[in-house]
Amino acid sequence: MWEAIGQQLRSPSGWRGHLAGKVMEIVNREPNDVSVAALEIASDATVLEIGCGPGMAVAQMAAAATNGLVIGLDASSEMLSQAARRNRSAIKSGRVKLALGNFEGLPFDSGSIDAVLAVNVAYFFSAGAELREVHRVLRPGGRLAIYATDRVTMSRWKFVGPRTHNLVDENSLTAALRVAGFDAQQTEIRKLAFRFNVRGLLAVSQKPVQPLA
Fold first, then answer.
1. Quick check: 114 and 45 in contact, CB under 8 A?
2. Rounded CA gap, 180 and 173, in Å?
């Protein structure tokens, strides 16, 4: 049972996926607030959220990018349905677009995105392909905010297992960003604490204007 719950959080589908989306609305509210603020979104920015889930952060970012574009990407059609309902008016006006797809081959041009958000999806990344793709699509000087509940907190939850989640700590997150091409000198890792004794890590990194040597 616990692994099935973990799988739904990884790839929500059907009625269980619908419930998973409602859980995400509660669990991600505080991390979304902090992570979106860290991006310092300009009014004309083009912003991408990978793993947009039910679209709560998409709505927050669209409120900031009043003359820009917010793109929500998710691998779950159920999550995109929830995100579409939540962002109906912004989609109609062309300020929000939603896309179905994985994170290993982002369907965007290199250097076309001003900011990228990734909240509680790093556990599902494979061997670094996702962060390399984030680095590729970001413009030079563009900003990434990636939040993950930390390894110690996650290890207490029965639905977390090696077949559904890769646990994250400060060292692994720092290393993954470095391998993807982000500069350690332009990366800040913040340790956060939320309700219910949940602790997490927020990495905020800027893509170097010049390629790293």
1. yes
2. 11
The upper half-sphere exposure of residue 143, i.e. CA atoms within 13 Å in the direction of its Cβ, equals: 14
48, 71 Cβ separation under 8 angstroms = yes
Backbone angles phi, psi at 192, to 5 degrees: -120, 155
Domains in the chain (CATH in brackets) are 2-206 (3.40.50.150)
Residues paired with 14 in a beta bridge: none
Sign of the torsion formed by the C-alpha atoms of 14, 49, 207 and 106: positive
Continuous H helices in the chain: 2-10, 14-27, 29-39, 56-64, 77-86, 88-92, 129-137, 151-154, 170-180
Cα 81 to Cα 187: distance, rounded to the nearest angstrom: 34
Strand partners, 57: none
pLDDT in tens, 133-153: 999 999 999 999 999 988 778
pLDDT tens by residue, 34-46: 999 999 999 999 9
Q: At CA 15, angle to CA 10 and CA 18, rounded to 5? A: 60
Give which of 63, 49, 53 is closest to 137, Cα–Cα.
49
Q: Kindly tell me the sign of the dihedral angle through the C-alpha atoms of 134, 135, 137, 141.
A: positive
